[in-house]
Amino acid sequence: MAGDKVGEIELRDDIFAAPVNKTVMHQALVRQLANARRGTHKVKTRGEVAGGGRKPWRQKGTGRARQGSTRAPHWRGGGIVFGPTPRSYEQKMPRKMRRVAMRSALSAKAGNAQLIVVQDLTLAQPKTKEMVTVLRNLKAEQSALILLPQRNANVELSARNLPDVKALQAGYLNMRDLLGYRTLVVTTDAISEIERILG
Asked: Are strands 115-118 and 183-187 parallel, antiparallel or unpaired?
């Protein structure tokens, strides 16, 4: 946590040195963003807008264009043509492809020197100032995703107030968070958890 080198750790090549497949990474990210959409958008068609039941004027003899309803799409206050309706945006992706995407993202982080492994990450009390100091020591103050092996309230509360920092349990690692932060700060126990899940 002080930024000193205290030892070495061997990472699995099939997870942290795998070939980077950008296509699958992009597909996994788009899938996650799409599945997060509610899909509850709705507009009214001409048959659903209130009013407009009477023909506004007679068919012939007025000199004006013939009209059947004041709720037609070209009228102010009329219905919407081909507007959005409630639907599901869910995209499916095989588990093997999802894991290939995660391995690719982790390998890209490791290959670009954006992966920092710490022996342990603990704070005596929730203090944002202490978290800033730790990240500055690790040279990860710009943008960081902190991976923990299990829930740690002090670390999570200390990181919550920082706009470009997020603390996450290793079991909940996802493509959006992995690609959304510049540096990945991982504890040794979290590394073991990742290797157990993706191995």
From this structure: parallel
